[in-house]
Known about the structure:
Layout: H1 6-25, H2 30-33, E1 42-50, H3 55-74, E2 80-88, H4 93-107, E3 111-113, H5 118-131, E4 135-137, E5 153-155, H6 163-173, E6 180-184, H7 187-190, H8 193-202, E7 211-213, H9 219-230, E8 236-240, H10 245-255, E9 264-267, H11 269-274, E10 290-294, H12 300-316, H13 327-345, E11 353-354, E12 372-373, H14 376-385, E13 387-390, E14 393-398, E15 401-402, E16 407-413, E17 416-424, E18 428-430, E19 466-470, E20 480-484, E21 489-494, H15 496-506, E22 514-518, H16 530-538, E23 544-545, H17 553-556, E24 559-561, E25 570-578, H18 593-614, H19 625-638, H20 651-680, E26 684-686, H21 691-697, E27 701-704, H22 709-715, E28 723-726, H23 729-738, E29 747-751, H24 752-761, E30 766-773, E31 781-783, H25 788-800, H26 803-812, H27 837-861, H28 863-868, H29 875-887, H30 894-897, E32 930-932, E33 938-940
Parallel strand pairs: 1-2, 1-3, 3-4, 4-5, 6-7, 6-8, 8-9, 9-10, 19-22, 19-23, 27-28, 27-29
Antiparallel strand pairs: 10-16, 11-12, 13-14, 14-15, 16-17, 17-18, 20-21, 24-31, 25-26, 25-29, 25-30, 32-33
Helix pairs in contact: 3-13, 4-5, 6-8, 9-10, 13-14, 15-25, 15-26, 18-19, 18-20, 18-27, 20-27
Amino acid sequence: MRGIPATMTHYSSLFIILCLFINVRLPVGAAAQSRNTTSATVPVNVGVVLDMDSLVGKIGMSCINMALSDFYATNPHYKTRLLLHTNDSTEDVVAAAASAVDLIRKAQVQAIMGPRSSMQANFVISLGNKSQVPIVSFSATSPSLTSLNSSYFFRAAQSDSFQVKAISAIVEAFGWREAVPVYVDNQFGETIIPSLTAALQEINTRVPYMCVIPESASDDRIADELYKLMNMETRVFVVHATMPLGPRIFAKAEDIGMMTEGYVWIMTESMTTLWRSIDSSAINSFQGVLGVRSYVPNSKLLENFAVRWKRKFQRANPNITNAEMNMFGLWAYDATFALAMAVEKANTANLGFSKPNISGNGVSTDLQTLGVSRNGPRLIQELSNIKFRGLSGDFHFVNGQLEVSVVEIVNINGNGERRVGFWTSQSGLVKDLNSKNTSALGPIIWPGDTSLVPKGWKIPTDGKKLRIGVPVDGFVEFVQVIWDSSSNKAKKFQGYSIEIFEAVMAKMPYPVPFEFVPYASSDRKALGSYNDLVAQVYYKNYDAVVGDITIVANRSLIVDFTLPYTESGVSMLVPIRDKKKKNAWVFLQPLTSDLWVTSGCFFVFIGFVVWILEHRINTDFRGPPAHQIGTSFWFSFSTMVFAHREKVVSNLARFVVIIWCFVVLILIQSYTASLTSLLTVEQLQPTVTDINELLKRGESVGLLNGSFVEGILLGLKFDKSQLRYYSSPEELHELFVKGNANGGISAALEEIPYINLFLSKYCGKFTTVEPTFKTDGFGFVFPKGSPLVADISRGILNVTQGDEMERIQNKWFKRNGTCPDVDPGVASNSLGLESFWGLFLIAGVASIFALVVFTATFLYEQRHVLLQFPPETTMRRKFEIMSRIFDQKDLSCHTFRNAEPREASSHYSVHSISAVGSSSSTNCPPSPSVSLNQTDSPDLTPSSVEAC
Length: 948
């Protein structure tokens, strides 16, 4: 600075200090929006469209101004400055659209903040698309705005659809089966309903009714809608309304008694955020209400901002004393920060608008004169990339939407609220964010100042009783209506089903008034079938149906059933008869034909094996062929009574006979037992074993009048003329007695509970056979989604598992005497081969083994004969010679050494073979010499013949 006067240096320093002071301390109010900006900064026009007289508008505008002031105070080096141009939309859709057109056309704004409501946003977004001006809203939360798929729309708020998952999680955690939405009749209210109902349906919670209230509804109209809700069973209500309407709904609910014990009220984000701003006199109507809203982590920066905002807002709005900083204000603050950063990063050289091309006669509208922002594409790109930690938490746009945050659940009590838990997409409901205990909330004070969790439903308090429809036709043991002859009205209802229902209702944890109503005309006749009776619940003519109503698929489409209280299934009932074998051939019945044939074959086979093993060494098995055959058969068959007198001298034969005697012993004992059973035990067999037999023969089948079983029979191709109907066990028995030939039936297709009842009356005369069709038994009928179903089902379990069930069954289904158990699946008492094939296998293997050992031994002993055969000897000749040798006595056996003189050595050579020349029919030994010439003709020359 050498050479510059001191005074100049002094003034230059003051000027620099002044400029720095202006940059740092520049206010964002009217002074900031004036054009007295320094030459180093570039003003960027930004429009603001808000309902300036609304609380959200006032809070939003104050937060926008504070955000600009704070932003440029901390970023004095930025070259751009947002210059706000505000327009009041006056809570009108047309005014909002006109304001946007005016800002774009005249002020040439580079972006628009607002509008406040989703309905206004729909129009403004279309203008933004046309002129490529980004629209940044911090209060338009309708999910329908997402479907617009506009790249120029940025929602700096959470969509209403994010909170429905939290609401459904609360409903599921407390087990409420029904919930009714209460919402305002406009786009704000309607757009959340599809998401809410879908979320409730995912957890099997029914939405029986939707309460729609116009925004301008009178108190009387609100009361009428609430009275409708009061007369319903549902006690869980989800309120999604604008702030002027919401407090009126709760105030009227308190007046008519719907803020008492047993009721559940859940508020959505908008009302949970703004409820503190209502008049203090109306706060009492919010006691016990649950609310959901976006969670804002607490921080020092947020606390300091809230204090500064409160002070400034009260100075600017002295008439508003109960305003509190809320999520909409925080989103407005953070959205302003995001827009300021994006404008700084975008290209500031092209802040103008391209002129529109207007063709035609020169007449144009304001919409046609809208230009196109040259900086719009660059600005939306920068907005999409913005990421920072704001007052509301992490701020980042994903496809133009804020990322889903944590949902906070609060409970309103007194003049304040208490946080009871959180909901996150990862963990669901949690008491605190660091807890691993899901599906848990802190203690809640419910309406009526009680900590007892409401059941979520209640019988309407209008003094009406549940109308329980009861069938008048059918088995009286299940349901019987006793009529008063003088008044022709039902005076008593009794039966198994009635007593079960009354026992269940007596165990309910709360009183449920009800009355039975017969489903009959004035002349006591049934008005329709059981299907018609069930349909009466669907048409709301009855509140429930009690009786012998079977749970089947087509009925469950229109009504709900409780758990069954009887056995399940449909089976065929047929008469039984004694098939005791009293004919002359009864002795053949104990064994099946294949077992008889197999046994006979084995007797012959064993005789043959013993003959082979004993023929050469046992005189009992020698002699003429007829004698040998007779002896073999005699020996084998005499083992059946263990009376064989022939001695067995071969060890191999003894081995075979021992095993065979064991087999025969088991066969005889089994035969004796089976024959005894046939002759002494009563043989009860069904007259029909297959339903197809009835179809082939065209015989008739019985079924209960009005039963769904008719559909099963018709589906099996039975003709309508083959069906016979009955209404009581006595009528069914009469049809069986008549028989098919006399207009009766051969079988009946009936449900198992009815069959058990019938068998208890006519014991020992009938039985069941297949097929068995699956059903779920008898249940009680209630309307779809009725909360009574779960509690009554639990009551059925308590009754059926206790002693009371046995008492009721003994009362109505007591058997007359002892009924024999009949197994219709047994077609014959005869013993089959499948029960004894193992024994025959053992005997066969032992016999074959003995034959193999004998053959090997015999061939080994005669090996010198086999070796001396000339090469030209044929196999047939060899077999004949070996057969002759086998037919001779084995003189070396001990049985012959002691009884007869020893023969000359049985030596066979090429020229002589001993013992071949004698006759086999005389039992005389052969001559000791047999010559074999070259022609294979034996030269039998007896040289030493043993005397016979």
